[in-house]
Amino acid sequence: MENMYLNVLVIIVFILAYHVFVNVHHVFKRYSQFTLIILSIISITLCMNFPIYESHGHVFDLRFIPILIGAIYGGKKVVLVLIIYSIITRFFIGGHGFYVYLITSLSFGALLIYGFIPLFNRLTQNKKIVYSSLVALAYISYEFTICHIWFGTLTKMSPILMIISILVAPLLTAGVVYLIEYLRNANELMENYNIHNKTKALSEMASSISHEIRNPLTVTKGFIQLVQNDDTIEVATRKSHLKLALQELERAESIITDYLTYAKPYDEINLQKIDVKKEVEYIINVINPLALMNNVKVSTSFDDHESYFIKIDKKKLHQILLNLSKNAIEAMPNGGVLHIFISKEKNKVMIEMKDSGVGMTKEEVSRLGTPFLSTKAKGTGLGTMVVFRLVKTLNGQISVSSKKGEGTSFKLRFNEVN
């Protein structure tokens, strides 16, 4: 009886392992059929190594259930591989029972390939459970019948064990099929839910972006019309209007760029070994004019004797640091200090950007990276969404701490390379 429990446990673990690898973590989703074959072979091998009954060359176990499951969810190729494997394995075990298994497995395989597999996919869930359990019952009855014909007796298995086996096989098959169908339906519902949420988020994003882009375009259109229609405008005023129009166009371009980056973060990733200190210095040079205009002082802190190398896409790192820097500067309307720290932490390079701005509440921090949360009057929150998306794309980590009225700290961590 212990081996029967072990057979049942092996089959259940096999089903759960397949679901986890293929449907949950999507590790082997592209190779789902191959994964099904490998896991089925493992479960068949374990069932055969721990038979429920073995005497005078007759070996009985529940190996036919992984074969049945592999057939109905993997198709004809899978069942052929599994039956051939099980026949070869049974041959090496030896005994007259090999010929019994040869007959039953080939007959069973033909029934599955030409009868049950084409029928199964057209059945409702309840009928799949009933029909598969009937196939399991038919197989075990057929095997006992062939044993009776071959050995001249039904088997020397105890009547109680035989009755339990006849009951367990179809019930276990029904339970396994029910479990698979339940997990598949749950996974399908989750995928549909995720698609719905993504569609809803993109719809809201598109609506908000169209509004955000329309604002600078309207301003630009107004300035251009003003310059075009009024010939009396002085040259200095004309230049000022055109400068403002150009700034608004640049703002619109920035919004579009952020949106495209968020929508397709994996496009054209060019990994290269870079010196974080040099890249931070470059970012400081870029943002210094904006910082000076807003009365913000930018300072850096790192160990001159240390090297800080990471493997990353330089352009995307620039985009992350620029977005965070601009957000930090804009969070200090009355001026302040933006500190940029570079350090090492457990084989990782950490970049911390800390401002002395308005800060955020715990609720605002928890919602960072979600569509269109912004603490700025004219903000869309898209820049922060892009930062979170890019950090994840580049296999980095991001953490945020903030206190209302005291400032915010963003910490980025990337794997260090030598």
From TrEMBL:
Keyword Membrane set for record: yes
Signal peptide (residue range): none
Catalytic activity: ATP + protein L-histidine = ADP + protein N-phospho-L-histidine
Entry-linked SMART domains: HATPase_c (SM00387), HisKA (SM00388)
Record-level Gene Ontology MF annotations: ATP binding; phosphorelay sensor kinase activity
Histidine kinase domain location: 208-418
Chain segments annotated as transmembrane: 7-28, 34-52, 64-92, 98-117, 129-151, 157-180
Database matches in PANTHER family: C4-DICARBOXYLATE TRANSPORT SENSOR PROTEIN DCTB (PTHR43065:SF46), SENSOR HISTIDINE KINASE (PTHR43065)
Protein name: histidine kinase
Membrane topology, record value: Multi-pass membrane protein
Domain of life (superkingdom): Bacteria
GO biological process: cell wall organization
Cited InterPro entries: HATPase_C_sf, HATPase_dom, His_kinase_dom, HisK_dim/P_dom, HisK_dim/P_sf, Sig_transdc_His_kin-like_C, Sig_transdc_His_kinase_LytS_TM
Keyword Zinc in annotation: no
GO cellular component: plasma membrane
Keyword terms of this UniProt record: ATP-binding, Cell membrane, Kinase, Membrane, Nucleotide-binding, Phosphoprotein, Transferase, Transmembrane, Transmembrane helix, Two-component regulatory system
Pfam families associated with the record: 5TM-5TMR_LYT, HATPase_c, HisKA
Main subcellular location: membrane
Subcellular location: Cell membrane
EC numbers for this chain: 2.7.13.3
